[in-house]
């Protein structure tokens, strides 16, 4: 902050410059990266709008957690409808469709692409 300027005057100056600031009552902030989560406890969060662009200013107690890869996560539930969809799109058998869905953790689009690529080889 600027010395000798009270917070109320600062807010007025910011409004004149087109800057809006709003405090957010947050208990925790979690930032998810590809390989980790950054966790900020007891955060002080301000939402700032400067010329139509929103930004967030966050301070607090930081910790990190590593993220397990998708392959080690629990498998998705595979339904008969999912298997039928893959079979219809690939002209594959029930077992082929089911295996492709298991290999792609239940992702129908990836299973179709997998089976289609295998049949083209």
Helix content: 25-40%
According to CATH, the fold-level topology of the largest domain is Ubiquitin Ligase Nedd4, Chain: W
Overall geometry: elongated
Number of domains: 2
Portion of residues in beta strands equals 25-35%
Query: By helix and strand content, what is the structural category?
Result: alpha+beta
Gross CATH architecture of the largest domain: Single Sheet
Low-pLDDT ranges: none
> How many whole angstroms does the radius of gyration measure?
25 Å
Describe the structure.
With 121 residues, this protein is an alpha+beta fold. The chain is 36% helix and 33% strand. The protein has helices at 7-16, 80-90, 94-103, 108-120; strands at residues 19-24, 28-32, 36-50, 53-66. Strands 1, 2, 3 and 4 form a 4-stranded antiparallel β-sheet that branches. Strand 3 and strand 4 form a beta hairpin. The chain is elongated. The N and C termini lie far apart (66 Å).
What characteristics describe this protein?
121 residues, alpha+beta, Ubiquitin Ligase Nedd4, Chain: W, Helicase, Ruva Protein, domain 3, 2 domains, 4-stranded antiparallel sheet, 4 helices, elongated
What is the secondary structure topology, with strand pairs?
Elements (H helix, E strand, L loop, with lengths): L6 H10 L2 E6 L3 E5 L3 E15 L2 E14 L13 H11 L3 H10 L4 H13 L1
Antiparallel strand pairs: 1-3, 2-3, 3-4
Summarize the structure.
This protein has 121 residues and is of the alpha+beta class.
């Amino acid at each position: 902050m600027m010395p000798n300027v009270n917070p109320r005057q600062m807010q007025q100056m910011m409004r004149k410059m087109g800057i809006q600031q709003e405090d957010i009552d947050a208990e925790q902030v979690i930032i998810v990266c590809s390989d980790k989560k950054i966790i900020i406890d007891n955060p002080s969060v301000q939402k700032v709008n400067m010329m139509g662009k929103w930004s967030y200013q966050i301070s607090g107690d930081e910790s990190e957690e590593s993220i397990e890869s998708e392959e080690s996560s629990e498998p998705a539930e595979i339904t008969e409808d999912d298997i039928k969809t893959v079979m219809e799109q690939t002209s594959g058998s029930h077992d082929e469709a089911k295996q492709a869905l298991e290999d792609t953790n239940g992702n129908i689009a990836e299973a179709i692409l997998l089976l289609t690529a295998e049949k083209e080889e």
